[in-house]
Write a structure and sequence with these properties.
Elements (H helix, E strand, L loop, with lengths): L20 H7 E5 L2 E4 H18 L9 H25 L6 H13 L12 H15 L3 H22 L8 H15 L11 H18 L2 E10 L6 H19 L4 H8 L3 H4 L4 E5 L6 H7 L11 E3 L2 E11 L6 H30 L3 E3 L6
Antiparallel strand pairs: 1-2, 1-7, 3-4, 3-6, 5-6
Length: about 375
């Protein structure tokens, strides 16, 4: 997995004064050219990465050493950000007042809506923004300084790193497309010359194209949930409820009402039971087998899975499409450009690390 978090340059800067050395060392996770990285910085970075991984790669946490990988990635991220920031300051990269104001405004914009998605008034949005600063223990002046330094790093990366990244040619893009087709055809063994990291990146991109080109169903469902290890009588009662509900649907009960009053899947129930588009391999085998035999507008008979009893409704079916090179060429060029940039950024950071004084203290606290 490429360290794409190197691009997320919103590092928390430490304003700690150097007092007694023993006390400082005790509170540090690391030191980068004598700039402290605090335990609180480290813990915040771990929490942020955990949220990113949970959203983008939920299977990551199934690995036995996921905790160690997360801890290392968080510390590496903080060290790399410090090195980039120090280099930007050494080069005296200028951030103009208008650029700073635009950067602050961009962050403020994120508070213009409530968690539910509804728009907030200007006053409420500003209050939410100020509350977040207060929660983080950051003054407005400190926040502006963070943004200024982040913009310095962005300029450094743009001017120094991006210009060194090699853009893909047509032959490279076509070869990448051919490898994606090999993955989609189940011929991963035919792919040669990729290391493990590059192969994982390829599989991730192929997975996205699979979702776009495979036969897709738009499903809704009602779930009568069964807890793990349910007693036989509980299983029988859940099945009976599902059968009775299916008969009510045959008798004219609206599916929306069936979801609202009966579904134990609270997340999808808020969307009238909508599961979105699904392709083969996304659903439990029993549910998938029933779903792909249905006709649009049809309600299924009750289907049992490890989660309980489902009644499915097929809203839409899209036929599989052939992946065509010309249709995806620009997307693939963008993927390869991002990969080239990430590789160049990694090389640049390695150069910075080579001459840096980096001390890691976190191992002493385990």
């Amino acid at each position: 997995m490429k360290t794409t978090n190197k691009l997320a340059l919103a590092a928390a800067l430490c304003a700690c004064a150097l007092t007694a050395q023993a006390k400082v060392v005790e509170e540090l996770a690391a030191s980068v050219n004598n700039e402290p990285v605090t335990i609180s910085d480290y813990n915040r970075a771990k929490e942020a990465l955990a949220e990113q991984y949970a959203a983008a790669m939920p299977d990551f946490f199934k690995q036995p050493n996921a905790g160690e990988q997360l801890a290392k990635a968080a510390l590496d991220k903080l060290v790399d950000e410090a090195l980039l920031r120090q280099k930007a300051e050494l080069m005296k990269i200028k951030v103009y007042e208008r650029e700073l104001e635009n950067g602050v405004a961009e962050i403020r914009k994120r508070f213009s809506r409530a968690p539910g998605g509804e728009a907030l008034s200007t006053e409420k949005a500003e209050a939410a923004f100020r509350d977040e600063l207060k929660k983080e223990g950051v003054t407005m002046e400190e926040f502006r300084e963070r943004i200024r330094r982040q913009l310095m790093v962005q300029k450094l990366v743009q001017d120094t790193v991006r210009t060194r990244a090699k853009m893909p040619g047509d032959a490279e893009t076509k070869a990448y497309f051919d490898n994606i087709n090999r993955v989609l055809g189940g011929r991963e063994a035919d792919i040669k010359g990729l290391d493990e990291e590059a192969m994982q990146d390829l599989l991730a991109v192929a997975g996205r194209f699979k979702e776009l080109t495979s036969e897709r169903l738009r499903l809704r469902h009602v779930l009568i949930k069964l807890k793990e290890g349910a007693a036989p009588e509980e299983k029988k009662a859940a099945q009976a409820k599902a059968v009775a509900l299916r008969k009510s649907l045959d008798g004219g009960l609206d599916f929306d009402e069936a979801v609202e009053k009966n579904s134990d899947d609270k997340e999808s129930a808020g969307r009238a039971g909508d599961l979105g588009y699904v392709v083969k391999g996304m659903l439990p085998a029993e549910v998938e087998a029933a779903a792909f035999k249905m006709q649009v507008g049809e309600n299924s008979q009750p289907v049992e899975s490890k989660f309980g009893w489902h009644i499915l409704r097929l809203e839409e079916k899209r036929a599989a499409q052939k992946l065509r090179y010309e249709a995806v060429k620009e997307d693939l060029e963008q993927v390869l450009s991002q990969n080239a940039f990430a590789t160049e950024l990694g090389s640049y950071i390695k150069e910075l690390r080579k001459d840096a004084k980096i001390q890691i203290f976190i191992a002493d606290k385990k």
